[in-house]
Amino acid sequence: MVYFVRTAGEEDVEKIRALLAETFHATYDPFYGAEKVTQLIAGWHSPAAIRSRIGKKDGEFLVADSGRDIGGIGYAAMYPKMEKTVMLHQLYVRPSVQGEGIGRDIFAELETCFPDTEIMRVEVALQNLRAISFYERLGFTEVDRMEEWGGPNSGLPAVVLEKPMPR
């Protein structure tokens, strides 16, 4: 199936929420358990949270759309704590279509959305070796580690990766 990357809109919120729930459970249940993942989804991927990301002034929310379904999403925004740095907050591909280049295509489009930045940064759950490997293949390198991925008191350690942005 062919997917086209485009900007997300209000009409995509429920499809995005469903994709995030599916991918979060497939990715994180083995590490954190289904109950903890369900809590994360409720907090991080509510319709209101997705709408706020879609409408964020200094951000870009993309979907890979086949015309029938959404195969992946990507969301990045300027990082207020570091000048000329964009934070890749989300890049998720539906498990049934992983490995088909959708994540790479979404990422390639996100790279073009922030022409004045110098660095892209992403935080990845420490146990998510598949994602870490994916980002390393895209040119990211580890620059730090953190104990609280996703927010205070999460108890979820993560690795911080960065990549110089193309000029």
Automatic annotation (TrEMBL):
Gene3D superfamilies per record: 3.40.630.30
Pfam families documented for this protein: Acetyltransf_7
Domain N-acetyltransferase, first and last residues per copy: 3-166
Residue spans crossing the bilayer: none
Protein origin, superkingdom: Bacteria
Full protein name: N-acetylglutamate synthase-like GNAT family acetyltransferase
Source organism of this protein record: Pseudorhizobium tarimense
